Amino acid sequence: MSSTLPAPILPESFASVEGVKPLLHLYTAGTPNGRKPSILLEELHAAYPESKELVYDVYSLKFSDNDQKKPEFLKINPNGRIPALVDDNVAGGHNVWESASILLWLTEKYDKENKFWFDKAEDKSDALSWIFFAHGGVGPMQGQANHFFRYAPEKIPYGIKRYQDETSRLYSVLEDRLSDPKSGGWLAGGKYSVADINVFPWVNGHTWAGVETTPFPALEKWLEAINARPAVKKGLNVPPSPAPPKNKEEEEKRAEEARAWIMKGVEEKK
Ligand SMILES: N[C@@H](CCC(=O)N[C@@H](CS)C(=O)NCC(=O)O)C(=O)O
What we know:
4-stranded mixed β-sheet, Glutathione-S-Trfase_C-like, alpha+beta, Glutathione S-transferase, Glutathione-S-Trfase_C_sf, Thioredoxin-like_sf
């Protein structure tokens, strides 16, 4: 096992461009939190195709190698979790960590025309409410649903039900918002924004947590609309992801592989 991090790779969007020098460096993995910044980076690149500042490369960290706990990475994110971003467009470099914080940094610095953000204070405030709601609610609760449903060494029905029910309740809050005709089908300001990007990869991964979206038609419509965006398709494949499991056996095999490193991490923290 190497003590250094994997070498960075250029995402598809920049692979064929000559002489690019990435100044944004994304440290990530194929998880819901890990996909948020790659989706926004792809959206920003599509919206501002001439901007050289938006060229980024990707350090695809391997949890099975505990890359996220290596000293080199802990200098960037002291919490030892992905995602993190180093912005070398700023003199001396600037480190950003926590997925929602990365989205807000990228918006503040590079979304000059507020294509994914807002001019009006009320819209910004609404977007922040939905961002905090997802960051403190949907992410942690669905993360725990994943853990108890997929990875825990014992099946604890109480834990599974508690976190699945809570995730489902949070989805019902999203549903109420998205089904309100005044919302235009988006979380804030009547348009697709960082507020949507911040929670989308979690809801998109609902099957892994064993949570249904069928009771929530407006949420399903929202999922479909976001999944149809070309930049989202690209962002979901940074770093490149394997095809979804085809059947229950494949699902269990994936969970088993992840269970090994997750439980190793739990043991080491004791
Ligand atoms: N609140 C953090 C959560 C980050 C997080 O939990 N990342 C997970 C992947 S989604 C991770 O790095 N897990 C590896 C570990 O726990 O060692 C954020 O939104 O960035």
